[in-house]
Design goal:
By secondary structure, the protein is an alpha+beta fold. It has helices at 100-109, 219-231, 249-271, 285-293, 306-319, 336-339, 343-348, 386-408, 424-438, 467-471, 487-504, 517-525, 528-538, 575-584; strands at 3-9, 13-20, 23-31, 41-50, 55-59, 66-69, 131-134, 173-180, 189-191, 196-197, 201-204, 210-213, 237-240, 277-280, 298-303, 327-329, 353-355, 361-366, 371-376, 412-417, 445-447, 455-460, 510-515, 541-546, 555-561.
């Protein structure tokens, strides 16, 4: 499928869009004031060790302290031979059963507010180009099992962990890499298992294995690539990325030498630095996308900034000489994202509802704990039996859902509520279809089989904020709840408050009720009889003032002194109209 990479670069923001058949499939955004830190390497200082959670807080010089779990700490396992080696194909580190109450206190002390981070397993923490096997001939430990509790918690197939307090101490300096961006109130997730990604390889200086991406299927090619890397006899380990397939020995070992020089320079910088210090900053989004996404399927890379165009050409000349001709400069007056129709697709990616071609739709709801996706048939009723209609809608929805996961960069725990189907064969077909679609997504995911109720549980690796978190803030009017109390509910809340207000002002003959115009209108038109009944029972006069500047849910009740002279009676003689006329004098134009 033909692809294009479209880059809109300004002094304040860079946006990179990946298009397939002119449809937006990925969007990456980086702002000058909010540079991504995932992949950066720091010399940090341990500020707090939490033995009960087997975790520690580390100051790396950012606003929020990072945290590191024992499973992410280099040297945290017992010596080789004490237990079976770790399988590279195993799931992410087990975060264990954590004392969230104690962790909550620690977060309050160190400026974080969410105690669930260490108890949360988003998805596999390994690189997207995870190797299927390694030169160490590792195998899964029989003691490694999938965790049964928590949100998608898994157990790493590894040697037993030594106690964290025996590995690091408070004020100790440690070398760490940011594995996951700071999201919301949570600090960045750290690891001491350093990885330096190149175009064709990932260098892992703290590991000693050679792995090959599972996406390279040919056994002969896998063997050839592994032998090329092994011939260098370099310290540490390497993961052969998918882009390495078919390359010559010279090209591969050139990338290896670059990564080894990078690590050598970083190590020397560490010797002259004191914590906290930034030792290595990952590439900005423009270069990073070219490094990671410029594959053979990409026909064009189009960039509108002339400086970035020259920078990309230089980068390609050094690392991607075969791809240099595909980089083009866009110099038309029309904005580049408008020309390629990217802007409206970004806007649609922020909507809850996504239409299906069949007439059905899906609804995407993001919460702090998980992402819920609901599938509905809508107006699509089909021409055959109901089960066939449900299957066709579900199959189409499964493809669209995977596209939306990638486009919106949704990660963590994801629950999909498909339309219920009675036949087990149809549920199995849906499971197979969705798993096949997920294989096209480079981001690691773990999907469970669809249940009898039509629910699919899955996790997807998360290293940065999703699109909605990047581009949106919670609604200040509803505080991000998405709902407000209804006007009748607010009116009756005022009614319940009036006896308390009357008791608080025993000598006042008149009370002024200030509220939003919609609430005041409802009281005038629908509830004037009940308001007058309250006046008689409480011995007070109530005047309403519509105040447009007030929040819909806001109101005040104040004493305003002696009762004013009543207006002349209404000609109609109707109680509701008379009440409205009497109180209309107390309206506020804003």
């Amino acid at each position: 499928m033909p692809q294009k990479i479209i880059i809109n670069s300004t002094p304040y923001e860079a946006r990179v869009a990946l298009l397939e058949n002119n449809a937006l499939v990925e969007i990456h955004i980086e702002r000058t004031q909010q540079r991504n830190v995932a992949g950066n390497i720091y010399l940090g200082r341990v500020t707090r060790v939490l033995p009960g959670m087997q975790a520690a807080f580390v100051d790396i010089g950012l606003e929020k302290a990072g945290f590191i779990h024992a499973s992410d700490l280099f040297g945290g396992t017992l010596p080789a031979g004490y237990a079976e080696d770790e399988d590279e194909d195993a799931a992410g580190a087990d975060d264990g059963e954590l004392d969230t109450a104690a962790l909550s206190a620690a977060y309050r002390q160190y400026g974080a507010e969410d105690p669930d981070e260490l108890a949360e397993a988003d998805a596999d923490d390994e690189p997207d180009d995870t190797p299927e096997d390694s030169s160490d001939q590792t195998k899964r430990s029989p003691s490694a099992k999938t965790g049964s509790g928590g949100r998608g918690r898994r157990r790493r197939a590894s040697a037993p962990l030594l106690p964290l307090e025996e590995k690091i101490k408070k004020n100790q300096e440690i070398l760490v890499q940011v594995a996951k961006e700071s999201i919301g109130t949570k600090g960045p997730r750290l690891t001491s298992h350093i990885s330096l990604p190149g175009r064709h390889l990932v260098y892992t200086p703290t590991a000693g294995h050679i792995g090959v991406s599972r996406r390279i299927a040919d056994p002969k090619e896998r063997k050839r690539l592994r032998e090329i890397v092994a011939d260098m006899k370099a310290e540490g380990g390497f993961i052969v990325r998918t882009a390495c397939e078919g390359l010559t020995k010279k090209e591969i070992q050139g990338d290896m030498r670059f990564l080894l020089r990078l690590w050598s320079g970083l190590s020397k910088k560490r010797e002259t630095s004191s914590a906290p210090a930034l030792l290595h900053e990952d590439m900005d989004v423009t270069l990073r996308i070219i490094r990671d996404l410029l594959t053979a399927e990409v026909d064009q890379v189009v960039v509108d900034n002339p400086d970035d165009y020259e920078r990309l050409k230089e980068f390609a000349a050094t690392f991607l000489p075969r791809s240099r001709s595909r980089i083009q400069h866009y110099d038309r007056p029309e904005p580049i994202f408008d020309h390629y129709k990217v802007e409206p697709q970004v806007a649609k990616a922020l909507e809850r509802r996504v239409e299906l071609k069949s007439g059905g739709h899906i609804v995407v709801d993001q919460t702090e704990a998980l992402t819920a996706i609901d599938v509905n048939t809508g107006r699509f009723v089909g021409k055959r039996d109901q089960e066939e209609t449900m299957l066709r809608t579900n199959l189409e929805a499964s493809q669209v859902i995977v596209e939306q996961l990638r486009l919106r960069n949704l990660g963590g725990l994801i629950i999909v509520d498909f339309i219920d189907m009675e036949r087990a064969a149809n549920r199995n077909k849906l499971t197979e279809t969705m798993r096949a679609a997920l294989k096209k997504d480079k981001t690691r995911s773990n999907m469970r089989k669809i249940s009898e109720l039509g629910l699919v549980q899955m996790t997807r690796k998360r290293t940065r904020e999703n699109l909605k978190q990047q581009l949106c803030d919670p609604c200040p009017y509803c505080n991000g709840n998405g709902v407000l109390r209804s006007v009748p509910t607010l009116a009756y809340t005022i009614f319940r408050h009036l006896p308390k207000a009357a008791a608080s002002h025993p000598h006042a003959s008149t009370l002024m009720i200030k509220a939003h115009p919609e609430v005041v209108t409802f009281l005038y038109d629908e509830e004037s009889a009940h308001l007058e009944d309250l006046e008689r029972r409480l011995g007070k006069r109530f005047f309403l003032r519509a105040t447009p500047s007030m929040h819909l849910e806001e109101y005040t009740v104040e004493a305003v002194g002696p009762e004013p002279a009543p207006p002349s009676p209404s000609k109609t003689g109707k109680r509701g109209t008379r009440s409205r006329s009497r109180r209309a004098a107390a309206s506020d134009s804003g």
